[in-house]
Design goal:
homodimer; 147 residues; 66% helix; DNA-binding; DNA-binding transcription factor activity (chains A, B); ArsR-like_HTH (chains A, B)
Chain lengths: 147, 147
DNA sequence: TCATATAGTCAAACAACTTGACCAATAAGG
DNA sequence: CCTTATTGGTCAAGTTGTTTGACTATATGA
């Protein structure tokens, strides 16, 4: 493989990821929720049973302070609640509210819609394969801003 | 396709893109250049004939003020030079210096190295196909931070 | 030639993140 | 059990990369 191809691949990855994230965010807002793209990825970690701030920080690839601030924001907007952790009195369990669940569903719908546009371009099977390969490459790496 | 699969795909895309960008940056630094990931993508637009600040802004998906600041930074570190534009007295052509070319080559090497690790995981053919599909999806969309 | 658009920069404001300091609850070792 | 180290979380301050707004200089077009 030529050297410059690798950079082209990276650029394509970033462009695709950026486009998708932006569309999801637009879709979520169109469904009546205000937010930023990070919300959706936070929600996937909070559902179904909640998570601690530290869990969230690892999932998002940021410091726990940053994760804590995000939770503040989500709580202020009514998407999540901090509850005492059943097993550990230091920790607090962050769980989705009813509105948080609704927003999660909206994000999933918006994502499905955006991906459907890709299926129209390269075919559903190809999209599925894309996802499969990507999952094998970066199984559960942190979901964080790309540069 | 199930709704939640689409969010999973997005997360995988982001994780993969993030990992790749980070590795490239580390590789570039290991080769003796200081910088941040955006540099490499700026370079791909500046090579081979240079570009204006506005071109760069479009390529990176940021405002031209942000692009201008990036160019300041790159110039201060000796990677690029601002030269008068041959055809338009308002514009200035940003071109790579010799050191800028060296850094570009380093970025390409680092990228090739990072992608090679992927080829070991899923096979070179699969990686090539991945790149092909992604290019069809997001042909020349802006390369910008993903969330 | 006069209005309008475009290329670029300066400056200030802002958003998301980090680093550092700290407290409370737990876990580990004698 | 005490003591010490570790872990979960927050508060506060600082940093970074970005945007918005204002402005100048050149180009374009009726």
């Amino acid at each position: 493989m030529q050297n410059s191809e690798a950079l082209t691949l990276t650029a394509a990855l970033l462009a695709a990821a950026g486009e998708l994230t932006q569309r999801i965010n637009e879709g979520v807002e169109a469904r009546g929720f205000e937010g930023r793209p990070a919300y959706g990825f936070a929600f996937t970690r909070l559902a179904p049973d909640g998570a601690t701030v530290t869990d969230l920080a690892v999932h998002l690839g940021v410091t726990k302070q940053a994760a804590s601030q995000l939770v503040d924001e989500l709580a202020r907007k009514g998407y999540v609640e901090r509850r005492p952790h059943p097993d550990d009195a230091r920790a607090r369990l962050v769980v989705l509210t009813e509105r948080g669940w609704a927003c999660t569903r909206a994000a999933e719908e918006a994502a499905a819609e955006a991906v459907r546009a890709w299926a129209d371009l390269i075919g559903e099977g190809e999209v599925r394969m894309l996802g499969d390969r990507l999952l094998r490459i970066a199984p559960n790496g942190p979901v964080r801003p790309a540069w």
